[in-house]
Every structure is written in structure tokens, then in C-alpha cells.
Amino acid sequence: MIALEQLSPIGIGTHQIDRVERACALRGLRCALEHGENFLSTGTSYGPDVMETVSCLMRSIERERIFLCVYIEPSVQSGEEVRAAVEAYLRRFGTDYVDCCQIHNPYETALSLDTVYEELARLREEGKIRFLGASNLAPSALEPLAQQWDLRLFEGLYNFECRNYELEGVTAACRNRGIRFVCYQPLRRNRTAQKNYPLLAEVAQRYGCTQNQVILNWLIRWKGLQVIVKALSLDNIAANLAALDLQLEAEDYRRLDAFRCPECDGIAVDWNRSGVGIPIHLLANQF
């Protein structure tokens, strides 16, 4: 089994991999795996075609080669449905356990977080889940959940523009508690590079790389975070991994740290379904 300390800094994203033919998607997933990416995140909300593609991958490789993280979707209505969702993943993927399980968008479910995690903890005791994680939590919810249920992984929106979880102290809290913070949408589906911010363009030109490579390097090497990236072509996978080899000067990292995005900063986040602002998981799609 893969230990948390052995997770690759770049993980395999599966959102919208059904936009290409399954054979192409499978080749891309296997290519990422062969190049050392050993963390895969997925969930039923991504659709049946994505689930079938991931199932094909899981059934074709040695189980110990991949760290599988799955989501409990907010449609669950009881502890029994939480259990049923996890066991459905096990059957679909032909495995006895998932490495990590977390509720996807916790404030869209009618269940209390305690009810969800009580059942997940029972499944952990039974060996069907190795670690518990969380995703899209309000900053105020992390500490009590982490303390009570021993959370080991947190998936949150974080990228060059959207730094809400850092500003709210979540990335620091994860670091202090030994929780791995995993950034989703680290490249904002290429929209950040399309903005062509002068700072990113300048740094990329100086080091002879792409803006996406600058972002990935900054997130992983300077911020100490893990990322999930959907990349299905050999060229894109290789380019992402090459970002790890860049050697940026500390001053350039500090300049990247100091960047602020007024478009993002001007959008209010609704952390607790107050009706004011937008949920954190939708923030990166607003500009």
C-alpha cells in the first residue's frame, strides 16, 4: 500500500475525462501512472462513463500501485447510504478498500458532518477505508473534524488566483496537523495561463518554460502542496512533470506569492449556505 508520504506531488484528475473516447482516456491514465503519478481522485458525480473508465484502469493494474481517493456525494440521506456509496465503489473498482474517502460538497447535504464521518469511521475500522479526508469545508469546520476523526487529507480549491484557503488559515492548519492539502483546479483548466498575467509571462520567459509549469512548480516546490491535474496526453503529462525540475530563484517565488487577483478577491464566498456569495467549489469558474 502507498503511504501518504509516498504520494506523488502531481495527482491524476478524472473530471471530464469522458470528453474523449474511453480508449484514449485509459491510455492517458496509464501513461500518468507509468510516469510515477500514483494518486487518483474520482467520484460518482463525474458521471458513469468516468466511473467505467476508472474501473477499467483499477481492474487492469496491481492494486498497490495507486492511491485511490473517492468522494461521498451530497445526495446521501443517511448513514446507511454513506456505507452503501463506499461499498458501491468497492464493487465497481474490484477492490477491498479505498485509500481515502471524503464528502465532496459537505454543505449541500442534508446530513450532519458527524453522521457522515461516524459511518466513514466505522468503515475505516472495518478496513474498507484507510484514511478519512475532507473537501470544500468551511475554514471553521476543519479543526473540529480533524481533531475528532483524524483527517489526513484535504482537497481544496487553490491556485495562482484563488487563495482563499490560505487567507483563511486552512493551508497552515493542515500543515500544522500533518494533513496533506491537495489543490484541485491548480491551473484553473488552463484559464490562468490564458489571462497572460505579466508576472507569469515574465517568469516563464526567464526560465524558458510555460506559465502552467511556473504555477505547478510554485505550488509544489515553494508552497509545499500537492496538486490534481487532468492530463491525458503524453506531452501534457511530461510537461507537467518537467515543472518539478525547474529551479526558480527565491525572489521570483516571493513575487509569485505577492500576486493578488482583484477579479477573484472581489467575489464573496458562501462558506455556510448563507445565500450570500457562491460556494467555494464554484469560485474558479466565475472569471
Structure, described:
The chain has helices spanning 22-34, 48-58, 79-93, 113-125, 139-149, 164-167, 170-177, 191-195, 198-207, 211-222, 234-242, 250-258, 262-265; strands at 10-13, 39-42, 67-72, 98-103, 129-135, 151-157, 180-184, 226-229. By secondary structure, the protein is an alpha/beta fold. The protein has one domain (4-285): TIM Barrel, CATH 3.20.20.100. The protein has an eight-stranded parallel β-barrel with strand order 1-2-3-4-5-6-7-8, surrounded by seven helices. Strand 3 (67-72), helix 3 (79-93) and strand 4 form a beta-alpha-beta unit. The protein starts with 9 loop residues before the first strand and ends in a 22-residue tail after the last helix.
Set down the secondary structure blueprint.
Blueprint (H helix, E strand, L loop, with lengths): L9 E4 L8 H13 L4 E4 L5 H11 L8 E6 L6 H15 L4 E6 L9 H13 L3 E7 L3 H11 L1 E7 L6 H4 L2 H8 L2 E5 L6 H5 L2 H10 L3 H12 L3 E4 L4 H9 L7 H9 L3 H4 L22
Parallel strand pairs: 1-2, 1-8, 2-3, 3-4, 4-5, 5-6, 6-7, 7-8
Helix pairs in contact: 1-2, 3-4, 9-10
Concise summary:
This protein is α/β, with parallel strands linked by helices. It contains 13 helices and eight strands.
